[in-house]
């Protein structure tokens, strides 16, 4: 199984972490506030999950999922941490008040351009979603 770092622990990151753990992968979750803020989420995910800093998680993993707001490129890992790795861009193009951004470029070409050493692929995401109860992490119930 793969080691997957999830950068961002909001709706998308927490849901992906739960799904990856349920599929048998080892997961590292990180956010801008630090590993200690992720204890409830990590505990709900079980023994295949851990909290790490953004940089440490990206270096540890085989695959890196970017699930931070597009308006926050400073939340991305350093380029050397993702060199040669698969980087999944699940960032949404919205501004500070959850409004669609007026930026003219797409997320995977603007926010992730500094991560060009990784093998970047853009995923689709949705802004409003509801997970079935069986996939929600305990902290989200």
Summarize the structure.
The protein is of the alpha/beta class and 141 residues long.
Please supply descriptive tags for the structure shown above.
141 residues, alpha/beta, Rossmann fold, six-stranded parallel beta sheet, 5 helices, 6 strands
Summarize the SSE layout with pairings:
Blueprint: E1 3-7, H1 11-22, E2 26-30, H2 39-45, E3 49-51, H3 54-60, E4 63-66, H4 79-82, E5 86-89, H5 107-110, E6 119-122
Parallel strand pairs: 1-2, 1-4, 2-3, 4-5, 5-6
Describe this structure in words.
The protein is α/β, with parallel strands linked by helices. It has a single domain, classed as NAD(P)-binding Rossmann-like Domain (Rossmann fold). Helices cover 24% and strands 18% of the residues. It has five helices and six strands, in the order βαβαβαβαβαβ. The chain has helices at 11-22, 39-45, 54-60, 79-82, 107-110; strands at residues 3-7, 26-30, 49-51, 63-66, 86-89, 119-122. A six-stranded parallel β-sheet has the order 3-2-1-4-5-6, sandwiched between helices. The longest helix is centred in the first third of the chain and has 12 residues, at 11-22. Residues 98-111 have low confidence and may be disordered.
